[in-house]
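User: I'm curious whether this sequence folds into something compact or stays loose and floppy. Could you predict its structure so I can see for myself?
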Amino acid sequence: MKWDKKETIKLKNLYRNGIPIQRISDRLNRSPGAIEGKLRLLGIKRNRFVPRLKLPSKITPAVARIHAHICGDGNLFQYKEKDCYGYLGCYKSNSHRYRYGIGYTNINQKLIREFMDDIKSTFIIKPLYYSNYVKVKSKDVWILLKDLGAGKSRDWFISQKIMRTSREIKKNWIRAFFDDEACFNAGGRIRVRSVNRKGLTQLMKMVREFVPCHITPNKGYYPDSSIYLNINKNDAEKYFSKIGSLRYKNNKSNEAD
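Assistant: Here's the prediction. I'll summarize afterward.
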């Protein structure tokens, strides 16, 4: 059925006033597909209500902490789902799309709150919160963190953009990762266990700018394929004074706040 001039004007006015296409369809007694097609022929730009997202132009302490948390107790995820949402869902068949995002898990609410605050201030988006788990669905955020080195336990690395930056940013990366992964034992020693020798060796280089540390074993792995970054008890106080911790009160306690 052809569109007459009066109906076309009404369509323009309804759409430009922000009326959803499904409601326009009901008022004009046209299918959503017909409404879509007519808007396309008229050259009217679709209204896209996309959450506002800002990507940082440089590495900041917040970006460093987010990246460190993803390398520690976080993850990058991607999955395939059916693309059958919205008012045109009934017209689609065998259509799929890929979703991307990041997740972070921690029982320590101080670290959860810091991670969520960093996400909000850095990307201007609100993360999804499920008790001890935080999730952000965004391909742009996924790409940014992956380019900086985030990945699986055996694959993550620290980008040169972070390795060659200021001491303040390095300190924030170290502190966030240690709060996720380190064990501050009763004897005062600090240990970080990992199966990723490359990533832990990069971390060791950054830590040595603040406090002495070493990796054991020097060659090979323990039976569980892990290695350890160690800070001796005599240097633990220096770690807390120069780098700090949200999770631990002092170097003589292995209990989180």
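Summary: The chain has two domains: 5-42, 61-242. The beta strands are 74-82, 96-105, 128-130, 133-137, 182-184, 190-194, 214-216, 227-231.
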